[in-house]
């Protein structure tokens, strides 16, 4: 074990206890003049209702609108109460059968007769999951009323909605439930393989249906400021072509030219990581899934767009992997993080459903408190003028832990340390611990006076505070004992965060 260098030649530390402050973003007026956009000073982040914004959330499995049994007002109230500011929702060209992906009480799998779609029902029975078939030439006005109220209720609470237009059909069981499948509509459209649905040349007449749907949704939602459009979820599966994605983005852009308000467009690039070589100029948000570790941020940072991790999962039901993924991604320079939270179901819109251990992912009130703390923490900094710079930090010994840094050089530094335990049974991650002083972090600081705080991202509290007076160069700090992960915050001038942390603890509860 390394000794704690509290009085090294590099800096002088004085230890004290402290608490972290809470900083809430005002929701702003519903229907503000300008929609969510990239921040003009730093397009890695958003500008929303006049404020620099990072979207951090833990949302349900995308069926809030299309599942008529889901009480979305209660759900949105829960998100807002828990300090989260985003959600994803599917438009209704796609839904899932019960039991898909081993998800218990899947909100994307409505019960028979409880699926809401943009298209109106016909007079002809025979939809595969109950009720009449669809007419792809008519709209269901009740559906659009529900969709618009969902966006409105989210906007009242300062929540940004990702409106996801399409999703590939991973299996035949999903394609059998789509209104675009010929077996489910009276228009004799969609008699084709599921892998040809989202193409420009093999769609057998469905492209016109898809274009009309996009124009309808974009027109209906034009007045709202709290949304962006994602072209297609996980287009790298199921035969979705890149030319088709670019075409749909063009349809969005062309439709909005006459509507007086432009919304951002997201493209889901890949699972884990990828380097985007020829980005679509219409796309402002590059979204990835399961982006842990977050190398994809560095790979695409020079593109000057928001880089998001908008789906997590398949790492078991423990909270730790998803908390660590969120912190890692945001400190890497990401501007959006959405955990896929299976504790939200129809009947449990408060996010307290107790799912089985076989679930592919997790989610819980405790995890949402941890993600709230992440959001409150990052918003206390001038993150707009911070940049990822891992070269500022060295960890000794380096084995078994990674260090990531977000910095405004000479002023503010965030260092996130996390362990990399191996998955255990059912994908669960066994805890990894470090003793007090076992790790030493060297941070390159200029001469001056700084205050350092070590924070526990699980509890949302400060473990230890130190006043630093570096002469310039590598400043050594010994990490307190921690399990899984720990945060080091360094600020010039010795700002005290005690007042806000008391508020954070009061907000989070025990």
How does this structure look, described?
The protein is an alpha/beta fold and 510 residues long. It folds into two domains: 15-21 and 385-508, Immunoglobulin-like; 45-110 and 136-379, Glycosidases (TIM Barrel, Alpha-Beta Barrel), CATH 3.20.20. Helices cover 21% and strands 26% of the residues. The strands form six sheets. Strands 5-14-13-12-11-10-9-6 form an eight-stranded parallel β-sheet. The protein has a seven-stranded antiparallel β-sheet with strand order 1-22-21-25-18-17-15, covered by helices on one side. β12, α6 (295-300) and β13 (306-311) form a beta-alpha-beta unit. α4 packs across α5 and α7 (320-331) runs parallel beside α8 (365-379).
Segments where pLDDT lies below 50 for 5+ residues? 1-31, 496-500
Work out the helix count. 9
CATH architecture level-2 label of the largest domain: Alpha-Beta Barrel
The domain count comes to 2
* Straight-line N-to-C gap: 33 Å
Inertia-based shape: elongated
C-alpha-based Rg, rounded: 24 Å
Please name the CATH topology of the largest domain.
TIM Barrel
Q: Would you summarize the structure shown here?
A:
The protein is of the alpha/beta class.
Give me the secondary-structure topology.
Elements: E1 15-16, E2 37-38, E3 46-48, E4 51-53, E5 55-59, H1 72-81, E6 86-90, E7 119-125, E8 132-139, H2 141-156, E9 160-166, H3 172-175, H4 206-220, E10 227-232, H5 242-257, E11 265-271, E12 285-289, H6 295-300, E13 306-311, H7 320-331, E14 336-340, H8 365-379, E15 387-388, E16 393-396, E17 401-408, E18 412-419, E19 433-434, E20 440-445, E21 450-456, E22 461-468, E23 473-478, E24 482-483, E25 485-492, H9 498-508
Parallel strand pairs: 5-14, 6-9, 9-10, 10-11, 11-12, 12-13, 13-14
Antiparallel strand pairs: 1-22, 2-3, 3-4, 7-8, 15-17, 16-20, 17-18, 18-25, 19-24, 20-23, 21-22, 21-25
Helix pairs in contact: 4-5, 7-8
